[in-house]
Design goal:
The complex is a heterodimer of chains A (340) and B (167). Chain A is of the alpha/beta class and 340 residues long. Chain A contains eleven helices and 14 strands. Chain A folds into two domains: 220 residues, P-loop containing nucleotide triphosphate hydrolases (Rossmann fold); 75 residues, ACT-like. Chain A, domain 2 (Alpha-Beta Plaits). Chain B has one domain. Chain B has seven helices and no strands. In chain B, helix 3 packs antiparallel against helix 5 and helix 3 runs antiparallel to helix 7. The chains are: A alpha/beta (340), B mainly alpha (167). Chains A and B meet through helix 2 and helix 3 of A and helix 1, helix 4 and helix 5 of B.
Chain lengths: 340, 167
């Protein structure tokens, strides 16, 4: 069976006005993807974020030829997913992960052998690659055990092994670290981080933003089927508008004699601080700092001098903050807020 | 292609070998039918008649097992979440389905054959096959039809007719 050769100059993923609508009789149509335009060059790891129902899985299914678009086009390395299904399947491997998608009564090695046959991996290559992949995924010792005895992390790593059997040019990873402990997650991320080295493009869908932070160089956000943000990781991180969050907890003695809440000084208010009551036992001042520096700390100390400070915490702005900011901002018309 | 079919069939044999319903379709069914049809009149059956009964039981058991297997393959694939990944591979759905059906049929035929032979030997039933080659070819033909889902209905009807005629 001839192997499809990708065009060296084509983008790995190319979407033009991609739309997918689900129609159910007697119910309003659901627009899962609404005119999405996107271009991903070869060898890039892209994080695809969005709330549940934003259209991430629909996009992954269209790119893996499991679903047809309603309108628009999607191309993988120059091949149309609807018209050149076979060629696209040669180039793309979806890894949907989770507990399903494997034969629980077969061993890890037998699962690899089966999916190798399904994906037409030549027998010799399969025999050579199976031990390599199992070793790289840390499954060599458990390879002959039934998959039903595997932990969630082991199943997840087996999914990735299956995904790599065919040496895909585009890998669609859906929630690769869901349900894994931190050590397992880190191990899986190490495996994924090596993919771009041989030109593999990865579209990474995850609610675990640590995956995106450690792996992705570019972040896409889907909201209600529209691509609202297309940013580099650094641009995405700065989306919140602040670098750090300072939380100062004041003791109950800061309340007035009649029990009224303390007020922010004009200087603190000018710095953008906000007040929060803490179970009637004290007050918390939240300050989102645009540019964190020693000067901010000095100003803060001066403003709070004479007050009973119980606790001070400083944490950098996280991708969770950026994601919350991205999905809480008003939805823009398709494509108008794509910033990269 | 042949290699792929072999690998797919081999995996399917390993998958179906863990099914508990195999005991009913591949062991209990032929033994039960054989016990009902052969044991009460074992002294009166001529070798030729006994061969007819055994053949009928084999075919009826193949038919029952192939129906269970066919339905079971799709049900299990959906249950395991392997339907999509299996059918969107480079070989395509038809090859994968053929390989899986082949594996299921080979397993069922093997176990039903063993159960039947075990019964025949244990009960001391004497068989007489006048044209062994034609007999084997006929059985193979019936088995091959079990690989084709479209022909499954035809096989089912044939199985009913044959079994009905024998009873």
């Amino acid at each position: 069976m001839p192997v499809t050769q990708p065009s060296s100059s084509s983008p790995a993923i190319e979407l033009e006005s991609l739309t997918r609508t689900f129609r159910v009789p007697h119910r309003p149509a659901t627009v899962a993807l609404d005119g999405v335009d996107l271009e991903v060059p070869q060898g890039q790891i892209v994080g695809l974020l969005g709330e549940n129902g934003a259209g991430k899985t629909t996009l992954a299914k269209i790119l893996s030829t499991l679903l047809l678009p309603t309108s628009g086009t999607a191309r993988i390395l120059g091949h149309d997913v609807a018209a050149e299904t076979r060629a696209v399947r040669d180039l793309v491997t979806p890894v949907f992960g989770g507990d399903r998608g494997l034969y629980p009564m077969l061993s890890g090695r037998e699962n690899l052998r089966y999916f190798g046959a399904v994906h037409a991996v030549p027998h010799r290559e399969l025999r050579r690659r199976m031990p390599e992949l199992l070793e790289a995924a840390g499954l060599a010792e458990a390879a002959d055990r039934r998959v039903e005895t595997y932990s969630k992390g082991m199943r997840q790593r087996l999914h990735v092994c299956i995904g790599l059997l065919t040496r895909p040019r585009v890998l669609l990873l859906d929630e690769p670290t869901v349900g894994l402990d931190p050590a397992e997650s880190a191990r899986l991320r190490d495996v994924v981080a090596q993919f771009p080295a041989d030109g593999t493009t990865v579209l990474l869908t995850s609610h675990n933003l640590l995956d995106v932070e450690r792996l992705a160089e570019r972040v896409l956000v889907l909201q209600q089927g529209r691509l609202t943000h297309d940013l580099t990781l650094e641009q995405f991180r700065r989306l919140t508008g602040y670098e750090a969050v300072v939380t100062v907890t004041l003791g109950p003695s800061q309340h007035g004699a009649s029990g009224e809440e303390p007020e922010l000084t004009p200087a603190l208010a000018a710095m953008g601080a906000s007040l929060q009551a803490v179970d009637g036992e004290g007050t918390r001042i939240l300050l989102k700092v645009q540019r964190w520096s020693a000067e901010v700390l000095v100003r803060l100390a001066a403003e709070l001098s004479g007050r009973q400070i119980v606790d001070v915490q400083v944490r950098p702005a996280t991708l969770d903050d950026a994601f919350t900011h991205a999905v809480s901002s008003p939805l823009a018309p398709a494509g108008s807020e794509v910033e990269a | 292609m042949i290699r792929a079919l072999y690998e797919l069939a081999r995996s399917q044999v390993l998958v179906v070998a863990t099914r508990s319903v195999n005991l009913a379709t591949d062991v209990v069914t032929p033994l039960l039918l054989m016990s009902l049809l052969v044991l009460p009149r074992i002294e009166r059956l001529t070798p030729r008649e006994a061969t007819g009964v055994v053949t009928g039981v084999l075919l009826a058991s193949f038919w029952g097992a192939s129906l269970w297997s066919g339905a079971g393959i799709l049900r299990r694939e959906r249950w395991f979440g392997t339907l999509g990944p299996s059918f969107t591979g480079r070989h395509g759905a038809v090859t994968v389905l053929m390989g899986k059906t082949l594996g299921g049929v080979v397993y069922d035929v093997g176990v039903i054959g063993l159960s039947t032979v075990a019964f025949v030997m244990a009960a001391g039933v004497r068989l007489e096959v006048r044209a062994p080659a034609a007999f084997a070819l006929g059985l193979l033909g019936r088995v091959a039809k079990g690989l084709d889902p479209v022909e499954c209905g035809g096989e089912a009807l044939t199985g009913v007719v044959v079994a009905g005629g024998l009873v």
